[in-house]
Amino acid sequence: MRLFVRSAVAVSICAVACTIIGLKVGDPPGQQMQTFAESFVASLDADQKAKAIMAYDSPARVDWHFIPKKSRKGLMIREMNTAQQTAALRLVRAALSEMGYDKTNKIMMNEKVLFELEGDKRNWDRDSGMYYLTLFGEPKNEGSWGMSFEGHHLSLNFVCRDGKMVDSTPQFFATNPATIMDEVSGPLGKGTRILKEEEDLAFELVRSLSGKKLETAMIADKAPAEIRFAGEAQPKVGKPEGISMGQLDPAGKQLLQDLVGVYVDAVADDIAAQRRELIQQSGWDNVYFAWAGATEPGIGHYYRVRGNTFLIEFVNTQPDASGNPANHIHAVWRDLTGDFDLPIE
Q1: Which residues contact 96 (CB under 8 A, 6 or more apart)?
Q2: In terms of CB atoms within 10 Å, which end of the chain has fewer, N or C?
Q3: Are strands 329-335 and 154-161 parallel, antiparallel or unpaired?
């Protein structure tokens, strides 16, 4: 087990450099993904293809989750040789920004941190190679095909149609510990915070509020235990809660835009620009920020940001592997026009 963890971490670190070099910068994201998907498929044997490729209309395409599982859809990184691992991670990199891929890579490496911190108490395998790539349908210029890259604390889902990326949700990142408070081996040392901006910008925003504005933003004294709609194909939201951007002062508006931007910018630049354009079209003043729980680290806290076209949820209530309270983040971006390129029913 320990050998698997170390080798998989080494692969993921190497892949950062390899995948960035491998990008075809002039091509749009959908075309890049198709190119690298074709290369990945060509590298697989028949047994691997049987795991890695499913029908586009398979129910597994919308069956997503971030919890530890003994088995998942797709082909596990650990089941690939080095060349196949590089091909798989090039494909993932093509769908993401440099920042988004860096978070993905660190979340994978963080499994080694959990392996060390949990020691003999662990109930689950902690292995940076236990992330699974699945293709749905045939990558080509006509019609639709999808991709999922998923494992503990990570779920990335994409759809390409007629050569273009048309959906990039659900987008889920998480980390335990949120802040590494112990001395650990490997590249993620003490003090590492993989999802630092997602937490710090929100704290800065909520702390900037007072009086009636803070009262409007606060939706509960206690944070919920988990994000809503975890594992569900579509979020079914009600009316927005919290304070609208139109009610914020200029500094607050900028903080909220910066916070949303952290989630927006996880994907390839062209797709991030499309996300921003949709928000702009529906109006930033219609974006709402809501908070629940404590406004300081180490005590359970939660926020959500809701626009007409998107939903962000963030929760930090669980202890980390060493027992430090509220040091375990879950964060998600959902498409309110329909995740997985499917309409919300």
Answers
A1: 104, 156, 266, 267, 268
A2: C
A3: unpaired
What integer is the mean pLDDT of 135-144? 96
The Cα–Cα gap between 284 and 254 comes to 11
pLDDT digits (tens, 9 = 90+) for 89-129: 999 999 999 999 999 999 999 999 999 998 877 777 899 99
Query: To the nearest whole percent, how much of the chain has pLDDT over 90?
Result: 87
pLDDT in tens, 207-230: 999 999 999 999 999 999 999 999
Segment holding 113, helix H or strand E:
helix 98-118
The Cα 78–Cα 59 span in angstroms is 24
Coil/strand/helix, residue 87: helix
Rounded Cα distance between 328 and 297, Å, is 11
Length of the chain: 345
Contact between 188 and 182 under an 8 Å Cβ cutoff? The reply is no
